[in-house]
Design a protein that fits this description.
Strand content: over 45%
Strand order of the largest sheet: 1-3-8-13-10-11
CATH architecture of the largest domain: Sandwich
Number of strands: 29
CATH topology of the largest domain: Jelly Rolls
Largest sheet: 6 strands, antiparallel
Structural class: mainly beta
CATH class of the largest domain: Mainly Beta
Distance between the termini: 114 Å
Length: 385
């Protein structure tokens, strides 16, 4: 009787094992088993093999669409989290993610190849993936909100660790817009151990100071940039003549941060800092105005000096785009400044000095003059015998 019972249990266990590797509900969706998943762990990791393994009963990662297969990459690259791109990855089939029959681009897909994930608690989902030239990788929440959008604007493929904040109970859809994805690793980090401050209680940023220099500005911004206690980032914008003239992003700040801007014209400038958090309304600072800024004249640099013989030296310097003309100064090395000779009104970036004393060593410098009456500092002196 005991032998028969054991045999029945063996048959039952075998049947259960067969059932556990069947696709879910007869669909093309595959529920992946995470190799490090546990109730005690705050980090869950899926390798390429885990992603492709058709097993039930795991924590919410699903491959949607057909044709997913293992790919052994020879890409000698490294992802942003330090993971190597060499080796196995889960490569999607040929059908791109689609929404209502059109290529998905920041929308919730309903067809094609994509990854679906339902978060058990608040956390962060990270995906190691390859993004082709001009392509964008999206992570979109079930309500259509973009949790992540990483665009490759370079001339070659990039190897990115795409990160998205996820909320408990929400389903998220990850895919490569206009192409099919390759995924090396997915991991989920639980973030509910720290409380995220309500956005309503986060103060708008304040531009406390703008310091003008010869060629631009240093802007001081007060505001918290922290994923739990403040904004996700603060974007500082410089405007000139009613148009945007520059932008800088503060990614981390415990309260005070500075950013630098280069100006290209004189005139009036305004600055505004905007705090941002995904899914929340932006919070903009009061506008900070700088009136009557005078852009310094760039200093020319003498790049070449050549003795042409017969008391002549040819000089060449870097042209300054807004210079009206140049003033060349020269004197015998070691002599008093009062003996220096000035040549005004030189309009080109080169000049041949004549009637010099053969055998003497001369020191040359150049000043750029602008039409508004401002001039540069003198260039570094160039000696020549």
């Amino acid at each position: 009787m005991r032998k028969r019972t054991k045999r029945m249990l063996s048959v039952l266990m075998a049947a259960l094992m067969v059932v556990s590797i069947m696709p879910v509900n007869g669909s093309n969706n595959i529920v992946a088993k995470a190799s490090t998943a546990s109730e005690e762990s705050s980090v869950v990791t899926w390798s390429a093999a885990d992603i492709l393994a058709a097993q039930e009963g795991d924590s919410g990662l699903v491959l949607c669409g057909s044709g997913w297969a293992n790919n052994n990459a020879t890409d000698d690259k490294t992802f942003e989290d330090g993971f190597s791109a060499l080796g196995d990855n889960a490569k999607a089939g040929s059908t791109k993610a689609q929404t209502d029959g059109k290529t998905a681009a920041g929308t919730v897909p309903d067809n094609g190849c994509y990854v679906k994930y339902t978060a058990p608690v608040n956390g962060e989902l990270a995906i190691n993936t390859k993004i082709g030239k001009g392509k964008t990788f999206y992570v979109v929440a079930e309500d259509g909100t973009k949790a992540a959008e990483v665009k490759n604007s370079t001339d070659a493929s990039t190897y990115n660790t795409v990160k998205a904040k996820v909320e408990a109970g929400k389903t998220y859809y990850a895919y490569l817009g206009g192409a099919t994805a390759q995924i090396w690793k997915v991991y989920y980090s639980q973030l509910n151990k720290k409380t995220v401050v309500d956005w309503e209680s986060v103060a708008k940023p304040v531009i406390s100071k703008v310091e003008a220099g010869a060629d631009g500005f240093t802007v001081t911004v007060e505001g918290i940039v922290d994923e739990y206690n403040g904004a996700e980032d603060i974007v500082v914008t410089m405007l000139h003549n009613d148009g945007q003239a520059g932008e800088a992003v503060i990614k981390r700040s415990e309260g005070t941060a500075t950013v630098n801007f280069t100006a290209h014209e004189s005139g009036d400038y305004t600055f505004v800092a905007t705090a941002q958090r995904l899914g929340c309304a932006d919070k903009a600072s009061d506008v900070y105005e700088v009136k009557d800024f005078i852009l310094g004249v760039k200093m020319p640099t003498i790049t070449w000096a050549e003795n042409k013989g017969n008391g002549e030296v040819y000089l060449d310097w870097v042209n300054i785009s807004d210079a009206k003309d140049y003033t060349l100064t020269y004197k015998v090395k070691g002599s008093d400044e009062s003996t220096a000779v000035k040549i005004d009104g030189i309009t080109e970036g080169d000049y041949t000095v004549k009637n010099l004393t053969v055998g003497s060593t001369y020191v040359f410098s150049v000043v750029a003059n602008r039409a508004d009456g401002y001039c540069s500092a003198a260039s570094g002196k160039k000696s020549y015998q």
